[in-house]
Design goal:
With 166 residues, this protein is α/β, with parallel strands linked by helices. The chain is built from four helices and six strands. The protein has one domain (26-164): OB fold (Dihydrolipoamide Acetyltransferase, E2P) (Beta Barrel), CATH 2.40.50.140.
Length: 166
């Protein structure tokens, strides 16, 4: 009986080790969870789970994912073992492992964006598109004020591998 119990415990230990090796200590986040702690995870390897909303149709070298809340998106660049993201992945739930990156937009850059939007509005009268862009710029400034930053952060991932979950 002891030998059978020992074999069961040993088999369970071997199975748990082999399944953990696939994760190799890489933290797994739903997109919304990752974005909540992204500042601490920049330059780290993580796995993010989200739904594909778009793939670049010409090269397939990037996709965009959305979280469960459907409030935030993130761009994922095809790197490592990912040759590209096929268009048929749109709507699929993926677990993507890669390195989290950030791009910082300075206050000066954002002011230049706003100036260009106002200039376009005067030149071609594209008020609807420009209003959406101005709203985005306003949201960036609100985020900067809330987080006491002189820049706006865009998080993205250099994806190395992915698995389709559904």
């Amino acid at each position: 009986m002891k030998n059978i119990l020992l074999l069961v415990v040993l088999a369970a230990a071997i199975c748990s080790c082999s399944s953990n090796q696939k994760q190799s200590g890489v933290p797994v986040f739903e997109l919304d969870q990752l974005l909540a702690v992204a500042e601490q995870e920049v330059e780290n390897t993580v796995t993010v789970v989200g739904y594909v909303t778009h793939t670049c149709k010409h090269s397939g070298k990037r996709c965009f994912i959305i979280g469960e809340s459907q409030k935030a998106t993130m761009r994922v660049e095809a790197m490592g073992e990912i040759g590209g993201f096929d268009r048929d992945l749109v709507g699929s739930k993926l677990a993507i492992t890669g390195e989290l990156k950030e791009r910082r937009l300075s206050e000066e850059f954002i002011a230049e964006m706003e100036k260009n939007v106002h200039q376009r509005m005067e030149e071609d009268g594209s008020a609807e598109t420009c209003a959406a862009e101005l709203s985005n710029i306003n949201d960036m400034r609100k985020w900067m004020n809330k987080h006491h930053k002189d820049y706006y952060v865009i998080y993205y991932m250099d994806g190395m591998t992915f698995d389709v979950l559904d």
